[in-house]
Design brief:
single chain; 264 residues; Glutaconate Coenzyme A-transferase; 8-stranded mixed β-sheet; two-stranded antiparallel ribbon; 14 strands; 25% helix
């Protein structure tokens, strides 16, 4: 069934949600993926935003913000970010989540703070230095990465985004790999997968380094490796992710009624 790369990424992400989960996601593709899952196979998925809009579903199309009337009109409750992030997420009650990344490394660490000149990254300089490009920061992603039982990373698959080591850790994945995250005592379990515009990566259960688990009907193992900034390992059982069915696409487009996220 013909679909765009953005639609394939949204459906692949949505397939990672299970019925009955309590989930948090932001606007855009992450919200499209979550509400598609609710409509498609997880009717009892309970959704909320980092702004505190709880138990709602979009009305009249996807919202432009986390407190847009399209998302708050039929909410079960409407509180604030302290309740959402400081109570629900920080206490470990959230089952699943979606966050994005400007830059990601092989252990699932996320950078949304800035891009530095080669050699001037804080971890190389030994102190914080001004970035070449200042990004918008972590928002609620750091709290989600630390507190959610698991979370999904959604990233456009480009070599400049997939670095061997991120310039700055805005939101933690598995830090330096192995048991380094566990030693920090985070409530949350870490990223369960990275869903991109080309395929799906999952963490090795021991090393926590992400490997290629699946590619899409329109991508290939070679293309994915070429667009990754480290020597990406490939599963011995690497496979093609199932192509979206007509029903799955219809459900997705029923959520994205304006087609604003239906890019190539």
């Amino acid at each position: 069934m013909e679909c765009t790369r953005q639609e394939m990424m949204a459906i692949a992400t949505g397939r990672e949600f299970s019925n009955g989960e309590l989930a948090i996601f932001g606007v855009g593709l992450s919200m499209l993926a979550g509400y598609w899952a609710q409509k498609n196979h997880a009717p009892d998925l309970v959704a909320f935003t980092e702004g505190g809009v709880f138990g709602s579903s979009p009305v009249g199309g996807l919202p432009w913000g986390i407190e847009d009337t399209r998302i708050s009109a039929n909410a079960t409750s409407f509180t604030n970010a302290i309740d959402a992030l400081g109570c629900l997420v920080a206490s470990g009650r959230v089952d699943n989540a979606v966050i994005g990344a400007a830059q990601i490394d092989k252990f699932g660490n996320v950078n949304t703070t800035g891009i530095w000149e080669e050699g001037t990254q804080p971890w190389k300089a030994g102190r914080y230095t001004l970035p070449k490009v200042r990004l918008n920061g972590s928002g609620g992603a750091n709290e989600i990465a630390c507190g959610a039982k698991k979370f999904i990373l959604m990233v456009t698959h480009e070599k400049k985004r997939f670095a061997d080591r991120v310039d700055y850790i805005s939101s933690p994945g598995y830090l330096s790999g192995g048991d380094s995250r566990a030693k920090m005592g985070f409530v949350g379990g870490g990223p369960c997968c990275v869903v991109t515009t080309l395929g799906i990566l999952r963490p090795d259960p021991v090393t926590k380094e992400f490997y290629l688990d699946a590619y899409y009907p329109f991508s290939s193992v070679e293309e994915i490796k070429e667009n990754t900034g480290w020597d990406l390992k490939v599963s011995a059982n690497v496979k093609m992710a199932p192509e979206p069915t007509a029903k799955e696409l219809a459900n997705l487009r029923a959520i994205d009624t304006t087609g604003s996220l239906r890019k190539g």
